[in-house]
Amino acid sequence: MLLPHQRQLIDTLKAAKVILATDLDGTFLGGSDQDRENLYSYLAGQTHTALIFVTGRDKAHIKTLIEDEGIPRPKLIIADVGTSVLDGDSFEPVAALEDWIDGHWPGDAAAQDILKDHDHHLTLQDVFGGRRRSYFISDRGKAYEAKGAVEAAGYDAIVSDDTYFDVLPRGIQKGPTLLRVIETFGLEHVRVLAAGDTLNDLSLFNTGLKSVAVGNREPDLDAALPDTPNILKASAPGAAGILEALTHFDMHFQLELNP
After folding, report:
1. What b-and-e string marks burial along 152-167, b requiring 16 or more CB atoms within 10 Å of the CB?
2. Beta-sheet pairing, 231-233 with 84-87
3. What's the pTM value of the predicted model, to 2 decimals?
4. Is the domain 4-101+172-248 a CATH 3.40.50.1000 member?
5. CA geometry: angle at 225 spanning 124 and 43, to 5°?
6. H-type helices in 68-173, by residue range?
7. Which residues does the chain have with pLDDT short of 70?
8. What are 34-63's pLDDT values in tens digits?
9. 147, 211, 181: which is closest to 79 by C-alpha?
């Protein structure tokens, strides 16, 4: 069920000629100050482009970035590695999507029990939301052993940037949730550009959507990317890589950038 103001949000997304669905850290927030200014100024000046955040961050952190640090406000937020979907204006959950995610989550206690033999190599993160458990890793090899145990028990697990370990509902990650948004709201795939930089973005690149792995991407992501024409391995980092992709895929509208 959609709230009345959320229906207006969906109308805005459907009217957009370009929908930028982007990771935050290292991607939308990556690159130089000038890179970010160029991208954010471009987005502010365009009425045809809609912004979706697709991030591992939780609601509180994203709200701080928008309200206190002044980054552009998205229309929609896919947070917590794809396990939460929020209205970008109100930060309220979008029930039509969150109900779908709930149906795939066996529960926090069950996930914790699976990891009881591995938790001496994992440190639970202080803050995470959604239907997930998130850890810092101390041993890459042991983290991949834990990943196997988690997946055998019916969950998804992601090791990314040699730092993070996420336990997620089976089949729920950034990419599948973005596709569910597109399907639920009747958006056109061809209008979407996805962007990311680490292994927890890999599912975005497996959607078949136009995608950009920005220039500062994690080496393990680079190695895992399929060699397909819908995926650009940008040379420019962060925000500049997104602008590079808008040009590459001919999705830009009169880009005027500062040097």
Report:
1. ebebbbbbbbeebbbb
2. unpaired
3. 0.91
4. yes
5. 80
6. 95-102, 108-114, 140-152
7. 1-6, 253-259
8. 999 999 999 998 888 999 999 999 999 999
9. 181
